[in-house]
Methyl-accepting chemotaxis protein (Coralloluteibacterium stylophorae), 628 residues
Amino acid sequence: MDVFWAALTGDALHMGIGALVAALSLAFLWFVVVQGIWLWCSLRRARGALKRVAAQPQPDPRPQLAQVFAGRRYIGLWREYEETLHAQRSETDIERSVQAVRATVPAESFFNGELIVDARLHTEFFKHLPGIFTGLGIIATFSGLIAGLQSFDVTAIDPEALKQSLGGLFGHVWNAFMLSAVAIALAMICTIIEKLVYASTLHQTAGIAAELDGLFKAGVGEEYLSRLVASSTEGTAQTKQLKESLVEDLKALLTNLTEQQIQATRQLSMDIGSNLESSLQEPLRKIADTVNVASRDQSESAGRMIENLMTAFMAQMRDTMGGQMGELSAMMRQSAEAVTQVEASLRTLVGDMQRASQSSSEGVQAAMAELMTSLASHERQQSEAVGNAQVQMLAQIQAATEKMAAAQESTSSRVNSAAAEASDRISAAAAEAQRASDQAAARAVQLATEMGETTLGAIGQLESGAARIADMLAALDGAAARLGQSGSSLAGVQQQAAGLVGQIRDASELLRRSSDTVAASSGSLAKASAQIELVSGSMASEADARDASLREVQAAMLRSREAAEEFKQFSGLVTDKMAEAVGTFGDRTVAVLDRNLVSFDKELTNAVDSLRQLMERLAILAADRVEA
């Protein structure tokens, strides 16, 4: 003990280390040993009390448990755990008494070492106390070594002085190791005691948690869940049954309500019908009379309007088409007369050419006969005067030749003059025919245009008249529908008129083609005149040229005559077609309007009759109800 005291008081550092070790040891004794033993005893008594409560089973042990934990430091843990307990109450008892108390969480969640032992014993601090003691012992060891080395005299030579120095060095080392040994011993002792106390208190705490878990049965959540599933299944079945019963009840209820509603509606309709019958009988009779008078007047006025409109339209169409076609026929007659004049001129030319050829042939034949006679007479008189005969013969031949030349010249001049005159007449006739053809084509085009405009104007007037009729009779739906159908029919007639305009345009195109044919004929006549002039210039092939010219002139005349006949037939056909189309247009328009007006009258008559019958029935019903 003296050695330990001497080591402890050897220097100031050792004294401080010793004081610190002593203070920590006292704190360990109070906070760990004393408090741990007291806590262990308290936990042991509480565990014993829990065992006694568990030995006496009862539905609700919470009051006894509150008394067990009353006055203890961990009473707060019990209150928190008590809030997690679930009391099961009786479903059949009126007072709903508690049948059992169920645990929802383990008791270890509240009664464990961290909440009860660690906080009370300051375990987080004192579990490091052995390390602190060991560190202090190491510090004391090194401080003693340093102090011994400081007191050692390295310059001492004398053995006694050296012995004293070594003695002081070993003394400091001993003191240092002594303090270190004490500190390490205290560290081991504190470790053992702290672990024993901590383990014993943890054991008691775990025992308390186990006792509490034994008092309260867990699994209330699963039980409630199973009961909830069972109740849901039962509720579904009951809901289905309730639905079926409600459907049946509602069906019967709605059936009764529907029957009552039908009866009430029927009675209401009868009352309303009787009231309407009594209040509308006289106004409806007046309306029927007014409608009859108005429909009769409107039908007559509409018929007169349509008749006047169609009469004016047909008169205008006849005037227009008659005048135009008369002018066209006059032009065609002028063209035919011009072609006839050309034919007469050509015939005169041919006659003149034939007479000239005949006179020329007769002159030549007379000269040849006279020559042959002279030769015969000269042969008989050869013996008389050969020289005179030859002279006379030559003179006669010369005279005959001169006569032939004169006859040929006269014939040529007559042919030239006749050819020139024929050429002029042919050119004039061709120009006249070309002009007449152009005028006819222009008039035909103008006629087609005016015809289309007149037709469209008439159709527009008919449409405006139909619109006026539709406006006048707009109050009656059936008549309006019929007039709409008549408008569609008029549109079809308008399309036919448009087709007629197209036919007239085709006719104008054919007239142009006919004018081209006449122009070709005039060209052929011009060629014939040119060939006649060539004939007059070449008398060597006179007969062949005359025949060819005559054939070409005849062919040209034939083509001109055929073209004139074709043009005449076509103009007649156009006139007939246009007259037929105009007549068809007027007839169809009148038929459509008559049919629609008749339908309108029928519909209006049927409506008036139906209204009259309805009023008569209402009057009969009213009379029956009055008599009843």
Observations:
- Residues 2-89+97-219 form one domain.
- The longest helix spans residues 220-380.
- The beta strands are 86-89, 98-102.
